[in-house]
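Here is one chain, start to finish.
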Amino acid sequence: MKSSYFISDIHLGTDTEYASRTRLRLLLDFFAAIEKDAEHLFIVGDLFDFWFEYKSVMPKGHFDLLYALKKMRDAGTAITLLRGNHDFWIAGFFEDELGIPVHDDFLDIRLGGKRFYISHGDGLAKDDKGYRFLKKILRNPFNIRLFSLLHPDIGHALATFSSRLSRDYSPILDDREDYMQFAREMFGRDYDCVVLGHTHAPVLLREAHHVYLNTGDWMSRFTYGKFTDGRLTLEHWPLPEQR
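Its structure:
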């Protein structure tokens, strides 16, 4: 039985090299384990803590991950990437080199006869008005062009500093009620399943034949979503000491 998987908020590149490599190793183990039955893998935002593609330069240090994704894609697993609030500057590399389509905002897709609404979810909280304004500025094509004029080393340093401030200000959001209310609004628009990320708080809510899933994170909780045989579930990837 083929399955679809949902994972988000991995934030590769956030912490010490040892901790980052440990989380990456868990992620690569997860990819290897699901490859045999994964029909579709959805990366629901914030795969990286920062990613910016210059015309001929890309961030270093993610070769193992990119290779694993390419290997899965070549083996027949469909992979879809949604931009998050930390890696929204992902451009053409994933589509051109890895064959992985990249989406902004949300994805409306049917899986196993059910209609899915999939989005990273940043800006959905009612008190996020300031961020919604900032989001428009950061994603403005003119501002992106200005940023691209910086030397890559300078641009990466500035973006990494900004990303760290963002995490220090709000390391784990807890706007679960806002997100559940949003999911109910989508249920009213004929979506059967709503999948979000961003909050780092895993949630599975079932109401009648509708399901809301928040994938949690891959920083401390190591949770993900799985859709198989018409059922969407919240799963946990065990740490080595838990196996």
